[in-house]
TrEMBL record:
GO terms for biological process: RNA 3'-end processing. One of its GO terms (molecular function) is RNA binding. Keywords: RNA-binding. The keyword RNA-binding applies. This is RRM domain-containing protein. The keyword Membrane does not apply. InterPro entries: MTPAP-like_central, NT_sf, Nucleotide-bd_a/b_plait_sf, RBD_domain_sf, RRM_dom, Znf_C2H2_sf, Znf_C2H2_type. Residues 120-147 are annotated as: Disordered. Residues 135-147 have a biased composition (Basic and acidic residues).
Length: 711
């Protein structure tokens, strides 16, 4: 194999000289060359200084070096250490300081050395950093998944203690929603943040927004904050200590000045400069209260990320996202109409997170934001139940609010009469959401249409009079205030297919019992595997077991015959279940490892494992219509399978579906029957489709072929 050619400046490898020549002419290389030149120029006019006491004010260092060598442009102190880099305005000043070698400051001998040009990161170092970052991300992802599964276990236990759908939904919300203690902690974070910032930025306003405020927050919700600097003032009294506190200065930020009455901004100060000021204040003055901040200036709305040291609550601070405050007010208005709306949105957010429609994670597809999902839910309620659209809400108030030229007017509250527009229970709203979404989006042209959330309508993009900077994507949902913003612009075709598939599967669950509905609704999808050929495990994955019940009609049986009739009925059901899998679905006994292998079972044994090489449940309804029906229902199903096997290429699975079957009798005061449990060997996407088919299919065959009267 030919060796690759290394660009020592960019630390990248290319295979040929021709490609290297293209690289050398490219913008990336030229940008790196310019950066290296600038670094060398800065080093020529800079010096490395060390030896002074920790916490020495920058003003003292500046005064010393300006007095002896010339004007100082910047002083960079790393992590409050006892060394720093001093950059002079003139190269001659740096040379003069280097020749001096030492100076005295506060009784301490300070050494002066030339500042060295630091070489770039080598290619191997880049690879090592990339590998370590990937490993760290994978560990974080596994930790997150473990935490989520623990939460899910508790959620399912809460569900099992409830007797109907509405109680189950309220139990899910009760466990997931942000507690009063969580609200109190976030208020404490707000108070701490304000007390630090207002000392340097008097008159600033700290305004929370997001899920933690709108009523849809959970325990893991971070705190989103809008820092309003539009009405800055000055301290009434002079505070000389403010100049020395936290060792702060803003000499390197044009138009920004710190005096004894606070920070002042000149007329030309930009948003990014303001972000830099706030970041520096938090980094210097919030030690022990907030963690070291990280500013992300390249985001659509530049943000400063930090966390509260005591509560460990993550905090995102933005200076330009005033629209988000109105978005939060809008969602809070809708949630005030009925408590059932909050319950519905909590359940749907949890469903979307389990289905990997929303949330974070290392996946191959982008996901919806929780805000985008909530706007879609509100859009559904506006269309289905006649709730007022955001445009209608803006007409309910005389006080008009304009933010960045957008009409963001909202009334202070809504009349209680809107409660009567809604169904009587959250379960009805949940069922309507899935069924209406499936019916509407089944033949919807997503690429050329827009969900206009402001008016509660759908519109063709060509005739919708969209702003010129509105970006179309696979799914287009217009923000209710900022009409130029597509809040689902990140959704690609695979993400959209996952969303539609999850809605379709959820809509098919409405006929299930209370216990199995939410178990299947929150069934987590299979992550995509990197390798096409994955060896099949030979042990059942017990944590993925799914169940359903088949009940026996016992109302007409005399009490003295009930036990014997039930025992015979169970044997017939077990025997029929195995016949259905082996004869109708062409299943074969599956192999298990010795340590998990069960003893060989007879026809009436209640447990065994199967392998299904073909998906005879795909297209079965269509195949059934094409065959001649028999009076014997079981024979009709056999004939349907034989007809489908004639075109076996269309139903052949890419890899066999292995699962373990267990049939367990149960006895309740008013009901007897069997619990059928299926446990997959591989977390495969085909298993869920098979389970949803098999539940209805087996129940129908048992009902027709094992009538209680013949027992």
């Amino acid at each position: 194999m030919a060796s690759k050619i290394l660009c020592e400046i960019c630390q990248v490898e290319v295979p040929t000289d021709a490609i290297m020549q293209q690289h050398l002419k490219g913008k990336r290389h030229q940008k790196e060359v310019d950066r290296q030149k600038l670094k060398e120029q800065n080093c020529e006019s800079s010096i490395y200084v060390r030896g002074y006491r920790r916490g020495t004010p920058e003003e003292d260092i500046r005064e010393l070096f300006e007095e002896q060598f010339g004007k100082v442009e910047t002083i960079t102190v790393l992590n409050d250490c006892h060394f720093s880099f001093v950059k002079f305005a003139e190269k001659s000043s740096a040379l003069k300081a280097i020749e001096t070698k030492t100076v005295m400051l506060g009784g301490q001998k300070i050494s002066i050395r030339p500042r060295q040009v630091k070489s770039g990161v080598s290619l191997q170092d880049k690879k090592d950093l990339k590998r370590k970052h990937k490993e760290q991300m994978e560990r974080s992802e596994k930790d997150r998944e473990r935490r989520e599964e623990k939460i899910h276990e508790v959620v399912m236990k809460k569900i099992f203690t409830c007797s109907d759908f509405n109680q189950q939904m309220r139990a899910i919300r009760s466990y997931l929603e942000l507690s009063q203690e969580g609200h109190d902690l976030r208020k404490k974070v707000m108070d701490d943040l304000h007390s630090i910032l207002v000392e340097f930025l008097p008159g600033c306003q700290v305004v929370p927004f997001g899920s933690a405020v709108s009523g849809f927050g959970v325990a893991s919700s971070d705190l989103d904050v809008f820092l309003d600097l539009s009405d800055l003032q000055s301290h009434a009294e002079s505070n000389q200590e403010l100049l020395k506190k936290a060792n702060l200065n803003f000499h390197d930020i044009p138009g920004v000045e710190l005096n004894d009455r606070g920070v002042t901004f000149g007329s030309g100060v930009t948003l990014h400069q303001q972000i830099k000021v706030v970041d520096r204040i938090l980094g210097k003055a919030a030690n022990g209260v907030f963690s070291r901040p990280t500013k992300i200036a390249s985001a659509r709305c530049p943000v400063i990320k930090t966390s509260h040291c005591t509560s460990r609550i993550l905090c995102d601070i933005t200076l330009s996202n005033k629209l988000a405050v109105q978005n939060t007010r809008l969602l809070k208005l809708y949630s005030s109409i009925s408590d059932d709306i909050i319950t519905l949105i909590h359940v749907l957010r949890y469903w979307a997170k389990r289905q990997e429609v929303t949330g974070s994670g290392v996946t191959s597809h982008p996901r919806l934001t929780n805000y985008a999902l909530t706007i879609l839910i509100v859009h559904f309620m506006v269309n289905k139940y006649g709730l007022p659209s955001p445009e209608e809400l803006s007409k309910m108030t005389d006080a008009k609010t304009l933010i960045d030229t957008w009409d963001c007017s909202l009334p202070a509250s809504l009349p209680s009469s809107y409660t009567t527009f809604l169904p009587s229970s959250p379960w009805e709203m949940l069922r309507d959401f899935f069924q209406d979404s499936l019916a509407h989006f089944k033949n919807f042209d997503f690429g050329s249409h827009v969900v206009v959330s402001r008016t509660g309508k759908y519109a063709n993009a060509a005739s919708a009079n969209l702003p010129a900077d509105f970006k179309m994507s696979c799914l287009n949902v217009q923000d209710p205030f900022d009409l130029s913003h597509n809040i689902t612009v990140n959704v690609n075709s695979s993400s959209l297919q996952r969303i539609l598939k999850s809605i379709s599967q959820a809509a098919e669950l409405h006929s299930m019992t209370e216990l199995n509905f939410f178990r299947n609704l929150f069934f987590k999808p299979v992550p995509a595997t990197k390798s096409k050929q994955t060896p099949s495990p030979t042990r059942p994955l017990t944590d993925l077991t799914v169940t359903f019940d088949i009940s026996m009609s016992i109302w007409w049986l005399p009490p003295d015959q009930l036990d014997s009739a039930f025992a015979e009925w169970c044997e017939n059901v077990i025997r029929l279940t195995k016949r259905v899998i082996s004869e109708v679905l062409h299943g074969e006994p599956a192999r298990e490892e010795p340590e998990t292998k069960r003893a060989k079972m007879s026809d009436t044994s209640s447990a065994c494992s199967f392998t299904l090489p073909v998906a005879l449940w795909v297209g079965r309804t269509k195949a059934m219509k094409a065959i001649e029906k028999s009076d014997d229902y079981y024979e009709t199903e056999l004939a349907c399978s034989r007809a489908m096997m004639e075109v076996s290429e269309s139903v052949l699975l890419p890899s066999p579906l292995n699962f373990h079957l267990t049939v367990t009798p149960f006895v309740l005061p008013q009901e007897r029957g069997v619990k059928v449990s299926l446990t997959p060997f591989v977390n495969d996407g085909n298993f869920r489709a098979f389970f949803m088919f098999f539940q209805k299919f087996l129940s129908k065959i048992v009902d027709r072929c094992v009538p209680t009267q013949k027992v």
